[in-house]
Every structure is written in structure tokens, then in C-alpha cells.
């Protein structure tokens, strides 16, 4: 029997070894700044600036939460917890922003509506903001460290940034806890605005 002839170059090895050296994420820490590198369009969207380039400070202290549907109930629980401090955060002149890694705003809006959650959303499908906060990297894919995740998504992290883009509270949540320390979040918002008020009166 004659067998077909194959060129050795046409044969693809069944096992291919990935030589990529993945690195651990390096989330920003309290006291560090995220001002440099944050796109002007993002600043405007997050803080409602009409001309963000002309304004060196954020109009409000921001509570930034990184959401992806791929975290399942963990993400939903976080959204519910943040919703409970929405009014208190607003009272201290802060603003909670949900940064959506999935880019499907309609689906997320539907989820919020179903659970009576009222939080603003900002799409970050290309992970620009998540990368700036150090909770996402192409060199540290989520699926390489967390079971059950088959896509590269940001950590379900929570940050508070003051008017000068300085991180006043960091919770990268590398252990993927169901709970956000919401009292610490509110305290960071209060302290950030109190510090600014002190500087103005000095």
C-alpha cells in the first residue's frame, strides 16, 4: 500500500510549549498617583468635565470599581455592597463609578436594573483604566492564576482617588473576596474631602 508523502514542515507538533513568562500583577498602592497616563477622555467621562485638559483636579473624589461578568456572583455582590454606600459617598462629595471590562453596557445596565442598583458605568473594554491601576496586564492573564476563569479580565478591585488623582484607598482583592470593606471606602472619601477642605482654609 502506498502512503501519502508529507513534507516534514507540514507536520505540526501536537504539543506546543508556551515560553511566555507571566508576571504577577502590581496593583497601585495607597499614596501612589494615577494622574499620569489617565487619558483626558477618561478623566472627562469619570468626572463629568466638559474640558478635562483645562482642569488639573477631579471635581469629586472617585470610588472606582472594576467589574466583569466573568467573576459571576462575586461581582454582583460587590455591586450590591457599593450601592448601599452610594448616598453616603455622595454626601461626602464622592462618586462611585463602575468600570466595565466587558464592554456590554446594555447587559450591565439590565443587571443593575434587575437588582435595583443605581451606579454609573464607564466602559473599559480595552482595559486602559484597569491597566493604569495595575489590576490588569497582558503579561499576567487572569486565567493563569484563578480557576474557572478562561478570559483575561481585571481583578474585582476597588479604589478611592482624591481630587489630585492620588490613591486614598486600595483594595485590589487578589483573593477574590465576596466582600468589599465599604466602611473603609466611605472613610477614605471623607478623609480625602476633609483634607482638601483643610488645604483651602489654610
TrEMBL record:
<dbReference type="Pfam" id="PF00578">
    <property type="entry name" value="AhpC-TSA"/>
</dbReference>
<feature type="domain" description="Alkyl hydroperoxide reductase subunit C/ Thiol specific antioxidant">
    <location>
        <begin position="60"/>
        <end position="168"/>
    </location>
</feature>
<dbReference type="GO" id="GO:0016209">
    <property type="term" value="F:antioxidant activity"/>
</dbReference>
<dbReference type="InterPro" id="IPR036249">
    <property type="entry name" value="Thioredoxin-like_sf"/>
</dbReference>
<protein>
    <submittedName>
        <fullName>Redoxin domain-containing protein</fullName>
    </submittedName>
</protein>
<dbReference type="GO" id="GO:0016491">
    <property type="term" value="F:oxidoreductase activity"/>
</dbReference>
<dbReference type="InterPro" id="IPR000866">
    <property type="entry name" value="AhpC/TSA"/>
</dbReference>
